[in-house]
Structure to design on (780 residues):
């Protein structure tokens, strides 16, 4: 009964949060530009890692929003805005993709026409792997993501004032249309940006692998932000730790899903033992990369699995805060592990530590920008009351 | 008949809010042995009842881990230690291939142990009856009412006080539940067990008869049952019932030269001449065959000193004057027909090989009985030619 009396007061994030964000962006991009002149290929690859990381956060977040509407979930309504805000990273990504498109020669070996002439496999793939079609696909994907992000968040924001049920219904229909397109565009993105780095290699499960990693990272981001915001009093006062349980469980599930997909991909290739397939894993096992591979299993599966296994740890804010940050780091290792072995350089270089600053910076900037203009809780959503009352 | 024993007090409520409130009050008063029955799970009930987290998870964890360990150890022992097999070029301890089985066994043991632990520790198997069954209370809580029942063996239980507490919580009905005079559903009664056995027998025999007899269809055996002669088995085609026929009398196999003194015990008057020239190839063939077929008894140097020496009538040395003076045809006769305890080697050693063996025996004889002059000569030859 007290809950209905609660009137949401919009509060801006502290000034220093936004400033930290801008500082990190500035630092990351300045040092990144310096590194480009030092070693263009390595820097381009690192830029690609940053781009993929932000893209996966955006994709995972918009997936979480759409899946909430589709399943009619109540519990996640009070966290939905956080996902929506993270999904707005697409707006920045439209800008961030441009340097990549002008720098494709440094990233993709199939861009090199003379090299393709000598390689009969790449020659056979030119009808798909050529710069024109690539850019068309990128534009198509961004149009789909941008369009649905824009429509979903517009309806959601309008509902804060009108409190119309109709807007939820609209978003449910939009989500139903979006999910199949999401599956297609995400797979295209994974194949284009990541799989084509080693253009000889192919894996039919690769899109799903990228999807699993994206959802894990986005869930971790949402959970971490929700706990932080709750600690500072930005969320509903009736928010209890028990309401984190569903987030913790989903996180645990998707950690397992990621491991399952990653292992499926590995085992089938390992068992068939065909040279054109195993080469990808050989690149991740030779010249010191084996340590990164083992480190990835440890960070992205073993530790989160062990930490999140018990029920109390799925709702303990302290442990969740630790493990979500851990998982966000592990996701960076994952993307690094996919991208970097395609270069001939050393396993680790000083510039690999620059772009993560930019990642954190961009996420903070995007989030605080949205917090200034939007409510942190969808106060007009008819399901909000139900969401807040949920307890174990 | 004895006074019926009190099992519990059961109270019914109309709304979920009331029952949560009631559970909070009952647990707050200090009752520990009580239970809540609702038609569907209610959020917040665990907290209201002050339930501790279930211990079941630890059993699941322990058995899950032992499942993983069992699977890995079993596969390690069978595949890598006891009977290592190379399977598609993978290492003996092929961890990626073992992971799915490890996973399956982990899940299997975890679930089975959870169910069995639940049945034994929490449901107290084989106890399968509860006084609450078949009561108006149970009927109500399994349709649209919410019930709380406080067990009589709780430390704080007192019939009047507990009744008052429940009525003060606005229960619309409070009833006393008694233990039945005798156990209603005894699982281990002989009648029931015999009934179970009979059902098992009837079901399994009915299944067997239906699937294996009534519905049995002969599988495709067209290739197995053909109208043809099968070697070494009976046949109706011929009068003597033999599937295999003997060759016509006097038939000779290709390239086979019959030995004219076959089955003749004493040495022939006119021994055959050796048709083979003592070439290097012939001597090498002879050496090979001699070492294979002859040396086991006669010894590597034909001295009759094999390890059979002393166990049988000793195999004679081939360096005796008798054998040395024999013609090649005499030795051939012995190999072909056998002599005393020595059987015929005609089936193992071909005609040409027999003559080659004889050449080799001649070499051995020569080497064993060479004179001083001959040794010197051969040494001279070998030093000048380099080879013998």
């Amino acid at each position: 009964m007290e809950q209905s009396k609660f009137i949401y007061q919009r509060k801006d994030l502290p000034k220093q949060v936004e400033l930290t964000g801008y500082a990190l962006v500035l630092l990351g991009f300045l040092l990144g530009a310096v590194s480009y002149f030092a070693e263009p290929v390595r820097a381009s690859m690192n830029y690609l890692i940053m781009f993929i990381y932000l893209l996966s956060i955006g994709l995972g977040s918009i997936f979480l929003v759409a899946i909430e509407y589709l399943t009619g979930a109540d519990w996640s309504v009070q966290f939905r805005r956080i996902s929506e805000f993270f999904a707005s990273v697409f707006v920045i990504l439209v800008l961030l993709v441009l340097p990549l498109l002008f720098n494709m020669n440094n990233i993709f070996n199939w861009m090199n026409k003379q090299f393709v002439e000598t390689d009969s496999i790449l020659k056979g793939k030119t009808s798909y792997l050529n710069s024109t079609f690539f850019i068309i696909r990128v534009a198509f994907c961004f149009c789909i993501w941008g369009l649905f992000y824009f429509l979903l968040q517009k309806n959601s924001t309008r509902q804060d004032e009108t409190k119309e049920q109709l807007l939820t219904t609209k978003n449910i229909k939009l989500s139903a249309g979006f999910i199949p397109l999401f599956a297609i565009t995400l797979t295209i993105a994974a194949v284009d940006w990541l799989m084509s780095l080693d253009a000889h290699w192919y894996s039919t499960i690769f899109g799903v692998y990228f999807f699993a990693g994206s959802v894990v990272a986005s869930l971790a981001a949402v959970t971490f932000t929700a706990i932080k915001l709750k600690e500072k009093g930005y969320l509903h006062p009736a928010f209890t730790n028990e309401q984190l349980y569903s987030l913790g469980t989903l996180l645990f599930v998707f950690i397992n899903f990621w491991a399952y997909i990653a292992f499926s991909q590995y085992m089938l290739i390992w068992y068939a033992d065909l040279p054109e397939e195993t080469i990808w894993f050989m690149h991740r096992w030779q010249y010191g990369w084996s340590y990164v591979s083992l480190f990835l299993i440890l960070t992205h599966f073993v530790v989160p699995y062990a930490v999140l296994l018990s029920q109390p740890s799925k709702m303990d804010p302290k442990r969740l805060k630790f493990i979500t940050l851990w998982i966000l780091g592990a996701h960076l290792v994952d993307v690094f592990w996919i991208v970097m072995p395609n270069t001939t350089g050393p396993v680790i270089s000083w510039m690999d530590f620059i772009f993560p600053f930019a990642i954190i910076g961009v996420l903070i900037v995007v989030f605080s920008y949205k917090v200034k203009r939007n409510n942190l809780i969808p106060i007009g959503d008819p399901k909000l009351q139900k969401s807040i009352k949920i307890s174990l | 008949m004895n006074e019926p024993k009190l099992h519990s007090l059961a109270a019914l409520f109309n709304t979920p809010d009331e029952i949560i409130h009631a559970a909070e009050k009952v647990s707050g008063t200090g009752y520990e042995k009580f239970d809540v029955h609702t038609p569907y799970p209610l959020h917040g009930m665990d907290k209201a009842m002050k339930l501790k987290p279930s211990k079941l998870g630890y059993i699941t964890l322990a058995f899950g881990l032992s499942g993983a360990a069992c699977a890995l150890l079993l596969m390690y022992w069978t595949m890598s230690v006891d009977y290592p097999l190379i399977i598609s070029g993978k290492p003996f301890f092929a961890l990626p291939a073992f992971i799915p089985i490890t996973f399956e066994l982990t899940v299997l043991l975890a679930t089975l142990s959870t169910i069995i632990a639940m049945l034994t520790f929490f449901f107290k198997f084989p106890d399968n009856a509860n006084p609450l069954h078949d009561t108006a209370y149970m009927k109500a809580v399994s349709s649209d009412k919410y019930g709380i029942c406080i067990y009589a063996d709780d430390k704080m239980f007192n019939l009047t006080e507990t009744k008052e507490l429940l009525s003060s919580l606005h229960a619309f009905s409070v009833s006393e539940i008694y233990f039945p005079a005798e156990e209603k559903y005894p699982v281990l009664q002989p009648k029931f067990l015999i009934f179970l056995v009979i059902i098992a027998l009837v079901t399994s025999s009915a299944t067997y008869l239906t699937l294996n007899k009534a519905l049995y269809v002969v599988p495709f055996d067209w290739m197995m049952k053909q109208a043809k002669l099968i070697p070494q088995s009976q046949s109706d085609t011929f009068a003597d019932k033999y599937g295999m026929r003997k060759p016509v009398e006097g038939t000779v196999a290709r390239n086979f030269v019959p030995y004219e003194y076959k089955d003749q015990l004493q040495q022939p008057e006119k021994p055959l001449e050796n048709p083979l020239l003592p070439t290097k190839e012939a001597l090498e063939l002879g050496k090979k065959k001699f070492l294979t077929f002859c040396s086991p008894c006669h010894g590597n140097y034909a001295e009759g000193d094999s390890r059979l020496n002393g166990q049988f009538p000793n195999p004679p040395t081939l360096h005796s004057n008798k054998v040395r003076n024999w013609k090649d045809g005499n030795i051939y006769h012995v190999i072909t027909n056998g002599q005393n305890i020595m059987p015929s080697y005609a089936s193992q050693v071909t005609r040409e090989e027999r003559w080659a063996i004889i050449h080799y025996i001649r070499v051995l004889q020569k080497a064993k009985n060479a004179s001083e002059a001959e040794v010197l000569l051969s040494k001279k030859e070998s030093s000048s030619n380099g080879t013998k």
Remarks:
- The radius of gyration of chain A is 21 Å.
- Chain A touches chain B at residues 263, 266-267, 270-271, 273, 309-312, 389-392 (CB under 8 Å).
- Residues 169 and 180 of chain A are 18 Å apart (CA to CA).
- The mean pLDDT of chain A is 87.
